[in-house]
Design brief:
Helix 3 crosses helix 8 and helix 12 packs across helix 13. The protein has an eight-stranded mixed beta sheet with strand order 1-2-4-3-5-9-6-7. Strands 15-18-14-19 form a four-stranded antiparallel beta sheet, with no helix packed on it. It has a three-stranded mixed beta sheet with strand order 8-12-11, with no helix packed on it. It is globular, with a radius of gyration of 29 Å. The chain has helices at residues 6-32, 50-63, 117-131, 149-153, 190-202, 234-254, 284-289, 306-326, 328-344, 419-427, 492-499, 525-538, 540-552, 554-557, 560-568; strands at residues 67-74, 80-87, 103-108, 139-144, 206-213, 222-226, 260-261, 274-275, 294-301, 347-354, 360-373, 380-397, 400-407, 411-414, 433-434, 439-449, 468-478, 483-486, 584-586. The chain folds into three domains: 1-33; 41-344, Zn peptidases (Aminopeptidase), CATH 3.40.630.10; 409-587, no CATH class. With 587 residues, the protein is an alpha/beta fold. Bound molecules: zinc ion. Zinc ion is lined by residues 112, 115, 211.
Length: 587
């Protein structure tokens, strides 16, 4: 277009004018609209983009005095996390809410953005809350509409092979290519730091993380994970399994949206049994459970239509809101009692194993499954016939046996040279003190034995799957500024399950202390050889042990440096810090 042409200039002015006009119209729409105007994309097999979801929730926030959308901390992709909050009392500051009356439900969506039905369901939930506020007087709902923003922006048609819609969706990993649902302890992502702050600001009684899963084909568009009962505080477990779990299954069935426990296969088909998911603290629901928040995960079925996945997830969220509102007093009381009982507990389990000897029976609605020859590989593959519905009994393994426990010390002492760890602990609102002077303390120090590391990294770490420790009581020098933490606080369970190095998701396993695994000071054989001789001559017991080993271990007997190292590591020349876990336990 030639802009010197009079007609064109008029057209330009007209179009600029129209743009201003349309901005006014959009603004009016954003502030005054009635909510029936939300066009839910799942009805045509599409999903909200990140921007669309935030825009719809902003509109709801502008429309309803009971809803507020709030920017929180930064994520790895630079954009800030949002929370959208519903409160009938119109109070959106977590420091000012009436905690004696209000139950708090925290919802998290799109931690895996290819599994985004919870985003759309949450918009629908807040639309409902905005016009039914009186039904939820005792409840505050806090939702993170999109948690993994980087993954949500990385949108394509190819993020989820075989998934029944939506046409486009985000990708599982975040901007750092991390699975954020493994990051709640190790805390590599800014998203995680933001989550920690949101979680501790609101201190929710219930937490729901929305997902979508695959594995086998069956008739249920939605399945449910409830925090594993043996891992939970017993008071919280009794309430969760005695009241909440039954309610959710029953109400969803009454709404003709029947759900079942997460189809976590024992082998390759449901017929061979399913098992409860042991969500350890690296996962969102395992993390929140350390603070006596009931953790739930909705797992929609990848092969159900996207429309159904959104509608089922919405109904589950709505049902959970109704339950939480009616039972707010019980939820508040149960969390308090669980916190009190954790404080009184002197022993915690830090590792569990599935009990394969006891199973309940689940009546399962599946499809006829056959093994057929693959036209790609020529080998056998599973094939589900969706026209042949079948109901059959499935063994359901629900119990995990404690296999390792630990006594709770009175204090942990942490050297200040681990600032990232101390920062993560502070984010959990853990009360800590710092020494005002250098000091020597007596206490238990673990020596790390049998530590193994995999050949390939897992979520940015060489995770130590096997860790054995030996506790040794000794005097250790600490410095002004080092940290001492009392275990007499609500985070008692969190502290034990993260600072005990052999706990299943301990910081140690995530490589926070690999520095101590390497020996730093060595020797030259010609210089140490005469010293070794003197050491053996001066210590009869050591000498006997040494001669015994030479006699019984022919490889050792032929290894000159190996023998000197054996003596070196039993001498005062050997550094006590090698393989010593640097956190002291004080009883
Ligand atoms: Zn997922």
């Amino acid at each position: 277009m030639n802009l010197t042409n009079g007609t064109s200039r008029w057209l330009l002015n007209y179009s600029l004018g129209m743009r201003s006009l349309s901005l006014v119209v959009i603004f009016a729409f954003l502030t005054l609209t009635s909510l029936s105007q939300i066009n839910f994309p799942h009805l045509k097999n599409e999903s909200f983009t990140y921007d669309q979801a935030i825009e719809e929730l902003t509109k709801l926030s502008n429309f309803s005095p009971y809803i507020e959308i709030i920017e929180q901390g930064k994520t790895d992709v630079g954009r800030r996390l949002h929370t959208v909050v519903f409160n009938f009392n119109k109070e959106f500051d977590p420091t000012k809410i009436d905690r004696s009356k209000k139950a708090v439900l925290l919802i998290n969506n799109a931690i895996h953005p290819g599994e985004s039905c919870g985003v759309d369901a949450t918009v629908k939930l807040f639309e409902y809350l905005s016009t039914h506020e009186k039904e939820f007087e005792n409840l505050i709902v806090v939702a993170i509409p999109v948690y993994n923003i980087g993954g949500m922006l990385n949108r394509s048609k190819y993020s989820r092979s075989g998934q029944s819609g939506p046409v486009e969706c985000g990708f599982r990993a975040n901007y750092q290519h991390l699975d954020l649902n493994r990051d709640f302890i190790k805390s590599d992502a800014l998203n995680t730091a933001a989550f920690h702050k949101i979680f501790h600001a609101w201190k929710p009684h219930l937490f729901m993380d929305t997902h979508t899963t695959n594995g086998s084909d069956h008739q249920y568009p939605l399945t449910l994970i409830v925090s594993q009962r043996n891992k939970m505080n017993p008071i919280l477990a009794e309430y969760t399994y005695g009241k909440l779990e039954n309610y959710l299954y029953q109400k969803m069935a009454e709404k003709e949206k029947e759900i079942v426990p997460y189809v976590h296969l024992m082998k390759s088909t449901p017929n061979e049994g399913i098992k409860d998911f042991l969500e350890t603290p690296r996962y969102s629901s395992g993390y929140v459970n350390l603070f006596n928040t009931i953790g739930l995960i909705s797992e929609a079925h990848k092969y159900a239509s996207f429309e159904n996945r959104v509608e089922y997830t919405y109904e589950l969220l709505n049902t959970l809101c109704v339950f939480s509102n009616v039972n707010s007093t019980d939820l508040i009381r149960t969390k308090e009692l669980a916190n009190q009982s954790d404080r009184a507990q002197n022993q915690f389990t830090i590792n569990w194993l599935l009990d394969t000897m006891s199973a309940e029976t689940l009546s399962f609605k599946g499809y006829e499954m056959n093994l057929v020859k693959s036209e790609t590989t020529g080998l056998l593959r599973r094939s589900y016939d969706n026209t042949k519905k079948e109901t059959f009994p499935v063994p359901h393994y629900r119990s995990y046996i404690p296999i390792q426990g630990v006594s709770v010390p009175q204090y942990y002492v942490i050297p200040q040279c681990y600032p990232k760890l101390i920062e993560v602990l502070k984010r959990q609102e853990i009360a800590l003190d710092r020494f005002e002077n250098d000091t020597i303390l007596n206490g238990g120090m673990y020596y790390l034995e049998g530590v193994t590391a995999p050949k390939e990294p897992y979520e940015k770490h060489y995770f130590h799957a096997d860790v054995r420790v030996n506790e040794n009581f000794q005097s250790v020098r600490f410095y002004k500024g080092d940290v001492i933490i009392s275990l007499n606080q609500d985070a008692r369970r969190y502290l034990v399950e993260t600072l005990e190095p052999n706990a299943v998701d301990a910081f140690f396993r995530w490589n926070y202390f690999d520095n101590v695994l390497q020996q730093k000071e060595w020797f030259s054989d010609f210089a140490f050889d005469p010293i070794a001789k003197e050491l053996l001559e001066a210590d009869e017991r050591l000498n006997l042990e040494f001669q015994e080993k030479r006699k019984n271990d022919s490889k050792f007997a032929r290894d000159h440096m190996g023998q000197l190292l054996w003596i070196f590591q039993r001498s005062k020349y050997y550094e006590p810090e090698h393989k010593r876990y640097p956190i002291m336990r004080i009883y």
